[in-house]
Design goal:
Radius of gyration: 17 Å
Structural class: alpha+beta
Number of helices: 10
CATH class: Alpha Beta
């Protein structure tokens, strides 16, 4: 039996970006069925970049980089965090991932990595619809880009359902934030906190298959 693992995340979450290499490895395991569940943590809300948030985010990002080895470039610091007055909103990136899940679900994890690297490495604003749509097209995900552009009723409903499911799981299992994993197998379901995603990959696998 394949073990089902639900990944709770937000595409604008720096700690989720820090966990990205391990999550990508997890998605390559034949024995694991990985499902992405965006929580909508930073979707909507109207937050904009200001100097205080810029300083807070960059300080936090340096902690993540030190722990995980993930890159947060000066382009990101200058063009994203330093773009004061711009939106800090994961709604567009979340909707884009749902569009990929409807058109080419096997590529959703790849699209998530591309969105994260576009922001934190290339310094692109992934709150911007035009940036995200171009990114999808550059990846050869034209069908998803078309759906994102149209934002049809089916896409919006599917996106809302995914966020609702993620939030329901977080409430059920007492998740304090993202990233986190919900592991389901013939023994039941349990939560693995984000800390499990920042260590050795083999140790993570052992935690996932414990008691199976």
């Amino acid at each position: 039996m394949r073990t089902a693992v639900t990944y709770l995340f937000d595409p604008l979450c720096g700690w989720c970006y820090g966990a990205s290499p391990v999550v990508q490895q997890l998605g390559q395991q034949a024995s694991i069925q990985l499902e992405l569940a965006p929580s909508g943590l930073f979707a909507g809300g109207g937050r904009t970049m200001d100097a205080a948030f810029e300083d807070f985010a960059w300080s936090n990002d340096q902690r993540i980089a030190k722990l995980t080895g993930q890159r947060f470039t000066e382009d990101y610091r200058r063009q994203v965090l330093g773009h004061l007055g711009s939106r800090f909103d994961s709604a567009t990136a979340t909707l884009a991932l749902t569009a990929v899940s409807l058109s080419e679900p096997q590529r959703e994890l790849e699209a998530l990595r591309a969105l994260q690297e576009a922001r934190y490495v290339q310094g692109l604003d992934t709150s911007d619809m035009s940036v995200v749509e171009k990114l999808l097209r550059d990846l050869g995900l034209a069908a998803a880009a078309d759906r994102l552009d149209a934002s049809d009723a089916e896409l919006l409903a599917a996106n809302a359902a995914r966020i609702q499911k993620a939030r329901g799981l977080m409430q059920t299992f007492g998740a304090q934030g993202v990233p986190a994993l919900v592991v389901s197998d013939d023994k039941g379901s349990r939560l693995l906190s984000g800390n499990a995603l920042y260590g050795n990959f083999d140790n993570l696998l052992r935690q996932i298959v414990v008691a199976t």
